[in-house]
Each structure stands twice: as C-alpha cells, then as structure tokens.
Amino acid sequence: MSLEKLSSNKAFGGELTKYKFKSAALGGLDANFNLFLPANAAGGKVPVLFYLSGLTCTEDNGAQKGGFMGPAAQEGIALVFPDTSPRGAGVAGEDDDWDFGTGAGFYVNATNPKYARHYNMLTHVTLELPEVIQAAGLPIDFTRQSIFGHSMGGHGALTLYLSSVLSGTKQYRSASAFSPISNPTQCPWGQKAFGGYLQGGVEEAKDKYDATELIARTGGEPLHVLVDYGTGDNFYKQGQLLPENFLKAARDAGYDEVQVRVRSQEGYDHSYYFISTFGADHIHFHANFLKA
Amino acid sequence: MSLEKLSSNKAFGGELTKYKFKSAALGGLDANFNLFLPANAAGGKVPVLFYLSGLTCTEDNGAQKGGFMGPAAQEGIALVFPDTSPRGAGVAGEDDDWDFGTGAGFYVNATNPKYARHYNMLTHVTLELPEVIQAAGLPIDFTRQSIFGHSMGGHGALTLYLSSVLSGTKQYRSASAFSPISNPTQCPWGQKAFGGYLQGGVEEAKDKYDATELIARTGGEPLHVLVDYGTGDNFYKQGQLLPENFLKAARDAGYDEVQVRVRSQEGYDHSYYFISTFGADHIHFHANFLKA
Predict the structure, then answer these.
(1) Which residues form the active site (chains A, B) (predicted)?
(2) What's the pTM value of the predicted model, to 2 decimals?
(3) In the predicted model, what is the mean pLDDT of chain A?
C-alpha cells in the first residue's frame, strides 16, 4: 500500500499533493486522493479534516473549487480529499448512470455481491486512508480528525460521524455538510444507491447509512454538527436533500442549535459557488474542535 | 448586442451571471462572459476589475478557481471574466494547437487578413464588453476600471493597461498579473502568436503588444502594477514568461517598487493553486485605486 506521488502544488504556504495507491478496500484498484499539508506541518503533526465530494466528482473538485486551503492554512489543519468511488471496477452497468456506480459510491460498504469486492468507500475513507497516510510517515495526527462534505459527500460526512458516535469509536470530533443528502432512504438518489449496493436495500440503509435515522439514536452523546443548504438548490426543491427531516430528528432527539446547527441560506444553489461562499465558515467551525 | 443570461449563481452574497451576446468585435460570433456583482451593487454602481485568463481557458476558470469573488465581495468590486478567444471562427487550423487560435487570442486585434475578422480580443475586452454591459443597464461604474490576468491573460492585462497609459485614455487605474508572459516578442508563445495574428509579425507586436517594450515608453506617467510569479513554474523555467526583462525595463524607465512591484514567489507553479493563494492580495491591491 505504498503511496505514489502523482503531482504536487504549492498553495497557501503549504503543499497539495496527489497520491495514488493500490487500495485493498476497493478490491485492489488504484485509488487517488489529494492531501493538503499546511506550512506548520513541517514542525510537527497537524489535525486533519476529510472532505467528501458529491456525485460525479473526484478528489480534485474540492481542492480546486472549494476555497478550503486558505482557511485551513490559517488554522494549521491538513485536508484529505478522497475520490467518490472505485474507478474501473468493471462491474456491468457501473458507468451507465451519473448517480450510481462510478463517481457515486455513497460512502457505504456494499453487501450486494455484485459490488462488494470494490464498492467499499466506507472502509476506504475511515480506515484505509488514515492507515496509508500514517504508514507513509506523513505528519498527520489522526487522534484529531473531523469530516465534512457536499451533497452525497455531506451524506457521507454525517453518517460516518454519527456512526462513529454510535459505535463509540468517536473517530471524528465534528462533522459539517453543504447541501447533504440528509435522509437518503426517503429520496430517489438514496433509494437507487442502497437498492443497488446493499443486499438488504433501503432497510439495511436505515440501520447504517441514513443521517436522519442515525441521529435519532445518538441521544445523550454530545454532537458537533453544522449543515448549510441553499433555498435556490434544485435538488433541494426536488426532495433529494430533505434537511428539514434531519433537523426535526435532531431536535426530537434533544439536540439544540449549538450541537446541531442547520442553516438555510437564501437563494444559494447546489454549486461550488455556494460551497466556497461558506467554506471558510466550515473550516473555522471544525478548527474549534480539532484544536481544542 | 443584447445580453442573454445563460446561468446565474449566488456567491458570497452577490451574484455570478454568465451572459452570451453576438459580438461585433469577434465577427458576429457568440461570445460568453461571466460577471460577478457584489451585494452592494444593489445600492448603486460599483467599480469593476477585469480578469483575463490564460491559454486554453474560458470565462469559467477564473470564476471557479481563482478565489477572487470572496475578496471582491468584501471590497464591493464587480468582476468581469471574458473568454480568451473567439469560438467557432472557422479559420483553418485554429483548433490545431493549444497555444494558438481557439483559447489563445492573446488580447490583440489581428491584422493578418486570415484572422482579422474574428480575432479581435483587444477591442472585445476594452470597448465591446464595457459597451454591452453598460447598454444592459448593469450597475457598473466604468470610470473606475482595473485589470488583471494570468499568463497570456497577464500579458493582456499589462499591455492593455500600459497601452491605455500611452494613448492617454487611462482606461484602467491599475494592473496586476500572475505569471504573465512579460516579454512575448522574446519567447516562443508570443512569437508564434504574433507571427500568426499580425501582418507585421513580431515587429508589429513590439510596438503594441509587449509589456516590456511598452513600459520603456511610459516614463513619467505614474503606474500602479503588481506582478507575482512562482520560481517552481515550468513555463517560467522554459523562458516563456521572462518577468526579469519586464522588471529591468521598469527600473530602467525609473519606476520604483511602489509603482511597479514584481514579486518572485518561492516554489509556486503556474496553476490556479498559485493564483488563488495570492488572489486576495491582488483584489485588495486594485481596491486601493478603484475605491480611491
């Protein structure tokens, strides 16, 4: 699992590096990710924030368009940008749709035998990437991790965070999301993805991969969650995101605005123009916990 | 020349809009540009900063990756992102190379008859875009314009600015550039472009389109110029940019570091990661003059 450096760009006093490695979690396929190290990483290990991207994206979208590196450099926080699915698994039909298969791994571990060898983005993000980064001797302190994401990646960030709270590993100190798919078992994108990747389909997903379902079960455990969505977002209007369901479940579970903050942003859409507008906010939110 | 709105995205409290219109300067072809209006434009006309992009780019690269809109929103400055060439002119060979023809207009008015009908990015940027924006009633104060750009667009920004000083129109209050092609008559990119677009070739360009030549002739007129380039930039290493020639000409002409500042940035390359690192700096530089 040794890392091959594909490219490197100096940015904001630090360095953005693209790596490739043979991913066991993804069935031995090559996997890419980007890592931003701020300048202070030269002096010792730094906290890390994972950014999970949305449907059709790669490890590049967030790095190029998110506007995250400037504030992360200020805060002295590293950023990891994983890809959004395995590439080239060769499963029949995986390239037919933009919202399923390649570019659309939904941050699950597939249990449907057709996908189970390769579509394991959950393990890839939560276990494998920390392992390979640590094994390479890169200056990241994995006792200080947080996670955020956009759309499908917002779903990933919220579910990986809440799952780590429920399981007691508490891998992430905080989670945030831009326009997350907040209740995927109730929307077409999620139903399609879970119906494909999971042997138990939507029912299996309710137990493991739905932020609205999960937050109903974390009661008592302290949470640090920030969500932004735009009222001009067509996917929001089409009922793919359902942030109100997540908000209601959070309040029903006793979480207040400090622990779970969901902000409706007037007129913003689903694009990286929206994300970059609030990117610095999210970085500073996570810094509160990563640097505590 | 009425404007058709192609898309619109809220960003940083303002609005980024992509427009299309039939461009007389470009021989009647459709031309796109992006316009960012900050929130304060709702209350009256705002100053404007033109961003000229580099080889192979369109009106989108700077808007998506430059990191300019956040600081421009803070300063209350509009941004115009033109395309880099006519599109679909149908001139034989215009799509053969990435550094000539489509995507590579070099911000000149072509005098070679083969290109003269369409390749007039100089007029497009300096006259036509202000005209159509003004005619559309958009809240821009064109008595307060500045200009910046990257690589080929840095060449454009410097030459359009210096030409407006030399001609006495003083259309722009300040100019800045990231890794500009600073002495194009002395580098392969410029020689190829001028040899193609201009009947008089490189000699014609020396008179009109070479920042290093032009600054030798502006002596006495006050200038406001900022240039950043990276020492890790492969095009710099290959001698395509030649910022030292521009700097020497500026100093020989009597300009000091306040009037013409050229900064060598250790380890940075030619990418938008470099640009976005110093984007806010450039916006604030121009704000000094646009808001004076």
Answers:
(1) 151 (charge relay system), 233 (charge relay system), 270 (charge relay system)
(2) 0.95
(3) 97
